[in-house]
Amino acid sequence: MEELKRRVLRIEILLVLGVSLGRSALYSIVDLAGKLTAGRPLAAQATVLNPTHAANRPWLDLSFQLLQILFGMVPAFLAIHFLNRDRAQAMEPAQLPDPLGLRPLRIGRDTGPGFLLAAAIGIPGLAFYFASHAVGINTTVVPEALPFVWWTVPVLLLSAVQNGLLEEVVVVGYLVTRLEELGWSARLIVATSAILRGSYHLYQGFGGFIGNVVMGLVFALFFVRFRRVGPLIIAHTLLDTFAFVGYALLRGHLSFLQ
């Protein structure tokens, strides 16, 4: 019976990753291969994170953007559902801890650590991006390429929330919890989570991979220690908000952002 449960868990992990960030990792590997064989240096190529889907039709573009954000969150809610289902099926569910530490009452407590994590990752991360681009191992990352209309900033904010929720729930909270249940060592779990995070950022280049592996190590270690994914979601959302919205507001004023 125990072996059956382990097999079911392995299949569940593969399915969750297959409809979310595992799939993204495979696409990123192929995308990087395409960039490396394009006949131009990586630094001469651009990667757009939030592209337009209908540049001359704002309402259609908005519809596509919102649908992409909505369905991008579904794998995170699926992962939460699987973890909560196991808790509900336990003999004494009330005695089991919240697997991700996502209780609403903790939002206030999670904000401070979230801001600290964002600062600790964001400032060195920005410097590393410029360095990796300068040495030619990363593409030029364009945070957004949306028409600047009334819904641009709200959509970018929602995109940041979606990224934070999806990545931190699936790649940290869910994956770490499931691999622990399979009996993996803490070091292997942290390394796996971090490498997966780096892999689905390979479309940006090798700099994006390295920088996100480091971020993944920090975030996975935080979750292993504190069992709270809330600060990670807040930190990730803040980082993406700064990148997406900051770029949208400043690109017309700072020449190096052109």
Tell me what you see in this structure:
The protein has 258 residues and is mainly alpha-helical. The protein has one domain. Helices cover 69% and strands 2% of the residues. It has eight helices and two strands, in the order H-H-E-H-H-E-H-H-H-H. The protein has helices at residues 2-18, 21-36, 58-89, 107-134, 152-181, 186-199, 206-226, 230-250, and strands spanning 46-48, 140-142. Strands 1-2 form a two-stranded parallel ribbon.
Chain-wise SSE layout:
Elements: H1 2-18, H2 21-36, E1 46-48, H3 58-89, H4 107-134, E2 140-142, H5 152-181, H6 186-199, H7 206-226, H8 230-250
Parallel strand pairs: 1-2
Helix pairs in contact: 1-2, 1-5, 2-6, 3-5, 4-7, 4-8, 5-6, 5-7, 5-8, 6-7
Count structural domains.
1
Radius of gyration: 19 Å
Strand order of the largest sheet: 1-2
- Termini distance? 60 Å
What can be said about the biggest beta sheet?
2 strands, parallel
Share of β-strand residues: under 5%
Order of helices and strands: HHEHHEHHHH
Mean pLDDT: 92
Helix percentage: 55-70%
Quick structural summary:
The chain is an all-alpha fold. It has helices at 2-18, 21-36, 58-89, 107-134, 152-181, 186-199, 206-226, 230-250; strands at 46-48, 140-142.
